[in-house]
Design goal:
binds coenzyme A, 8 strands, globular, alpha+beta, 6 helices
């Protein structure tokens, strides 16, 4: 499996006639006008306007996900004072156009997010990391995470990325979720995540996905 992934990666990289074009303002703006779309009461929007309300809602969502045991960087109990600066920095990068955010809302309330973080060195300019994948505990297992990831893949394609990577916590079945979206495991960092004080408790699983090229 890993051999096949590596060969496919090499084929993708060498097949490119020109380097990918990364998220210019106009591409992003054009894409924004194509969304939001509403499915079953949920609106998905790429790169929504950044304001204080979004920062507050993102911080509160992140805290709820942490307290429900979600694998999103912090240990429970969630401390909003720790989470808010991380949210603020992420939103600032979205605002300046260097990172991208896909936001899911229900009745104006933020219920899910994903973020895309690009690479800047020329040899990895076709790659982006998917981070901050989270769905409000009250809305999980309803297809929202899948919808968010599919929209993220669409956004990544439009921005010119062809390889997406992410890492996730072992032991929660997250590999199943990402596997259903086309990600393959290419490595594990043993004891890579200090979710408890025992460094052997949780490993970090590294996954990659080759996006289909779109015209
Ligand atoms: C992981 C997460 C984003 C998935 O979102 P979701 O809206 O619940 O996912 P979906 O409803 O689209 O799930 C689709 C399928 O993926 C699989 N899946 C989703 N979450 C899973 C989990 N935690 N464990 C195992 N399989 C899972 C299931 O097969 C599911 O289908 P099913 O409900 O019919 O069994 C969400 O559970 C979440 O926010 N978890 C907490 C935060 C977190 O751990 N994020 C991952 C950071 S790397």
């Amino acid at each position: 499996m890993l051999g096949a992934l590596a060969s496919e990666l090499m084929r993708t990289i060498f097949a490119r006639a020109t380097p990918p074009r990364l998220g210019s303002i106009s591409e992003t703006s054009e894409y924004d006008h194509a969304v939001p779309t509403a499915t079953n009461g949920v609106s998905l929007r790429a790169d929504p306007p950044i304001d204080q309300r979004l920062e507050d809602q993102f911080t509160a969502l992140w805290a709820r996900v942490v307290d429900a045991g979600g694998a999103v960087n912090f240990r429970p109990p969630a401390n909003e004072a720790e989470i808010r600066p991380v949210v603020r920095a992420r939103l600032a990068r979205v605002d300046e156009g260097s990172d991208h955010l896909v936001a899911a809302t229900v009745d104006g309330q933020l219920v899910g997010t994903t973020s895309l973080v690009g690479s800047h060195a020329p040899v990895v300019a076709h790659r982006a990391s998917v981070v901050g994948v989270m769905v409000d505990p009250a809305h999980q297992r309803m297809g929202l995470g899948t919808a968010l990831m599919e929209r993220t893949h669409d956004l990544a394609c439009r921005l010119g990325y062809s390889v997406l990577t992410l890492t996730c916590r072992s032991g929660l079945g997250l590999e199943t979720f990402y596997g259903s979206l086309g990600y393959e495991t290419y490595g594990v960092v043993p004891g890579g995540l200090l979710v408890t004080d025992d460094p052997l408790d949780h490993h970090e699983v590294c996954m990659a996905h080759l996006l289909e090229r779109r015209p």
